[in-house]
Automatic annotation (TrEMBL):
Its cofactor is Mg(2+). Keywords: Cytoplasm, Glycosyltransferase, Magnesium, Metal-binding, Nucleotide-binding, Purine salvage, Transferase. Pfam families: Pribosyltran. This is Hypoxanthine phosphoribosyltransferase. PANTHER family: HYPOXANTHINE PHOSPHORIBOSYLTRANSFERASE, HYPOXANTHINE-GUANINE PHOSPHORIBOSYLTRANSFERASE. Its main location: cytoplasm. GO terms for biological process: GMP salvage; guanine salvage; hypoxanthine metabolic process; IMP salvage; purine ribonucleoside salvage. GO terms for molecular function: guanine phosphoribosyltransferase activity; hypoxanthine phosphoribosyltransferase activity; magnesium ion binding; nucleotide binding.
Length: 192
């Protein structure tokens, strides 16, 4: 099978407009406070770095990162998440914002929220750029959401397929060809 970047689902212009709006809301909610952002590597890197530059300067933003991998076949997540890189900061008593690229089944985020909660932060909220709500298996309370998207596999603006295409400024769907693009027969954005 071959995977080819296809149509734009969300252009960089549309993304930036929405990221600014999210930052404005976050700026209002945390005005005069410290905010520890926890970006989930690697997908959230581009989103988080744009987001914090749009947050007002009277919010004291601290950045940290965490890397996770789910055990076993990632398309059929077990719900058990392995932390491959933990944050460096002690978040006890802090206002925490988990920043993630996309919420799909919800298993990753629900695990992370529970785990971070055990560290007794002052507050914990979640910010995601994309939400495939129809795929949800466990409920996740998303406080700041960029866009609802259909159940299609997407890449770009930090999101990858096999490590590639994170650098694309816009978010694209992916066409999957059973044989080759020349021979045709594409299946758009299924579950990779
Ligand atoms: P879940 O919510 O199922 O635990 O997993 C979310 C993770 O699955 C995301 O952080 C992301 O890594 C991956 N994922 C889900 N849908 C997509 C998609 O359409 N494109 C890409 N590139 N990754 C996705
Ligand atoms: Mg992710
Ligand atoms: Mg990925």
């Amino acid at each position: 099978m071959e995977y080819v970047v296809s149509d734009i689902l969300l252009s960089d212009e549309v993304i930036h407009r929405r990221v600014k709006e999210l930052a404005k809301q976050i700026s209002k909610d945390y005005a005069g406070k410290e905010l520890v952002t926890i970006g989930i590597l690697k997908g959230a890197v581009i989103f988080l770095s744009d987001l914090i530059r749009y947050i007002d300067q009277d919010v004291d933003v601290v950045m940290d990162f965490m890397a996770v991998s789910s055990y076993g076949d990632s398309t059929k997540t077990s719900g058990i998440v392995k932390i491959t890189k933990d944050i460096d900061i002690n978040i006890r008593g802090k206002n925490v914002l988990i920043v993630e690229d996309i919420v799909d089944s919800g298993l990753t985020l629900s695990y992370l929220i529970r785990m971070m909660g055990e560290r007794e932060p002052e507050s914990i909220r979640v910010c995601v750029l994309l939400d495939k709500e129809e795929r949800r298996k466990v409920p996740v309370n998303v406080d700041y959401k960029g866009f609802d998207i259909p159940d299609k596999f997407v890449v770009g603006y930090g999101l990858d397929y096999a490590g590639k295409w994170r650098n694309l400024p816009s978010i694209h769907m992916v066409d999957i060809y059973m044989n080759s693009p020349e021979e045709g027969k594409s299946m758009r954005g299924g579950d990779i």
